[in-house]
Amino acid sequence: MTDSGMPEAAASERSRHYQRARQDRGAETRQRLIAAALDIFGRQGFEAASTREIARSAGANLAAIVYHFGSKEGLHLAVAEHVTGEIGRRIGVTIGDALHALSQGNPDKIMARRLLQQITEAHLEAMLSTRDAENWARFVVREQMEPSPVLDVIVGFMAPVHAVLRRLVGILTDSDPDSDETGLRVFTLIGQMQIFRVAQPLVLRIMGRDEIGPADRHSIMRVINANIDRIVGVTAEAAKS
By residue range, what is the domain housing residue 221? Predict the structure, then answer.
């Protein structure tokens, strides 16, 4: 390399560093906007939420929303994808294990019960021990109360999970996984876990707790497993053996 080329190389390296730093700052701003929007959309709903308030809460300017998401609707969609992605990361392994077992043919009842327990435990852990779970739940519940186009994202995430649970419960109860009865059983299984997230203040007040700690989570899971045992007729203890 000639001496005359060295300043150009140095300038090129500085440019690359600048571009990387700019990209990092852009990604950080995007994440701050999603976090702020998750909180505000969940508390106020899509229509009432102000993009100006979201930008201010994120420490960004209003133009950053347009730059990163195109519009308020685009930001709303990004939040829904963020929520389902985060939940998926926490329960995805157990769903994958179940899908693999089901792809090999219907597992026996002991294996099906074990897979069901793994999914429910992962789901409960995600809902109760993850710091952001309260905001996820608030956003999802808001979408049930005031459905918007992003409900399709939530349904698109939950429908395959529900289908896996239906197949496992169908095996355990000798019932058609596509029947209404099996579908309702699955919703009751999900509901008994969700209550400890979406109605947690009520649970804490009535149970005389300040928080749901590790010992409480263990007790909740024990009771949920006992309820599932009664529904499906195969005990969690048998599945462990």
Answer: 79-240
